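Hello,

Our lab assistant flagged a job as stuck in the queue for most of the afternoon. It eventually completed. Since we weren't sure the result was trustworthy after the delay, we are filing this so someone can double-check. Below is the sequence as submitted and the structure that was eventually returned. Let us know if re-running is recommended.
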Amino acid sequence: MSAANASRDDRVGVRGRPAIATVLSGAHRFLVPPVRTLNAWLRALTSLTHHFQYKLEGFLRPSAEWFDHEIDVHWQWVAKQRSTFLERGVLNTLAMVPGAEILELCCGDGFNAHRFYAGHGAHVLAVDHNDSALRHARRHHSRTNVEYRQCDLRSEFPQGPFDNVVWDSAIHHFSASEATAILTSAQAQLRPGGVLSGYTVIEPHTEYAYTRMRFSSPEELAALLEGVFAHVAVFETPDALRRNLYFFASDTPEALPFAPGVSPRTPQ
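-- returned structure --
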């Protein structure tokens, strides 16, 4: 038996003694409820302050190139029940294996690199051309295995090889020709069996200053990806405000976490 296991068994044994169990139970009734109440107040306060941040940023800069996704955690998830930001992170990790070398394109505030990809990859290289976003990412979403680097994908592409390339909520920031060139570079830097994954949207009634390419259907997105990759999976999840499109592409069909093709709804 290891020293750690022995120590744990000793603690369990001590807690099982009737006198100590009574003391611990009383301490729990006395200490835990006020701590829970305090944290509930703090969550309400941080929800309020993040809502204020959301309104302030939207008023001062209606079309922002990057977004602080802690607003999603502390306000939108609570007040609006909007969890797409979690959906994006979770679905991208389905294509990742432990110890992967991961490249994230257009990482923005670094939220996903920190909260999702760092836990799966041995190393995450997260790139963006926006210096303000990278400063924010380094300050608020740093991890020992995450490297943030400034990079303009239209003129340079990080050298791999990588097991995963993630392009989340940014493919529409580029023209079709630029996107094709970036996809081609991503394919070249993926290891055999590597996967490109990501997310984009269909928002027909939204004017976003950084939109350079609009998709009208999942099939249109799939056609762009199929111009570079041999096997592509695209599906859509329901949303009251927009159409969320998720994509996976690889030259190895077994590497895809979902069956190739286009599905109009969440895979079952």
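-- support follow-up --
The delay was a queue issue, not a problem with the job. The result is valid. The chain has eight helices and eight strands. The first helix runs from residue 3 to 15.
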